[in-house]
Amino acid sequence: MAGRGSYRGGAGRTALVGLLTGLSLISLYLAFLAPSGKLALVAVAGVFPAGAVVSASLAAGFFCYGATGILGLLLIPSKSVALLYLIFFGLWPMVKSLLERLPSRVLEWVGKLVCCNIALAVLWLGLKALFLPFLPAALSQSWMVFAAGNIGFVIYDIGFSKLIAFYVARVDRGLRKNR
Length: 179
Description:
mainly alpha, 9 helices
């Protein structure tokens, strides 16, 4: 998922990151407005930093993540939406990119699951009251949250990889043709 370079410098990179930041922020605002599906919309907001990583660089992904997170905290009335983005979904594309550079698939998945469990611990133990609205009533105990969270994360990461592959094949290729 490492950035391959058509937008590595100057105005094109800035414009791309600005556009992706705006789209990510719109997704966060829609998550605030939506009566259900908030978690899915916050996850969609995390797709845009991945586009920045693929089309520009890892640094561009971090910039998109940081700008969206700061603007989300300032502009979106529901801070839980912005915090969920900051703690996991917005940061994940860059962490995923770094972990997928490891030489071993086993180390890669261990690292991914460690990151998932750190995020779950922060969300469940540190900010439980903010995130209870995101959870189904069946997940009332810690072990249930961690078990369901790890299963959901593995499915999410595999799907996210497929989405990145689609982005590379269709969107990024189109961006490169138009340059």
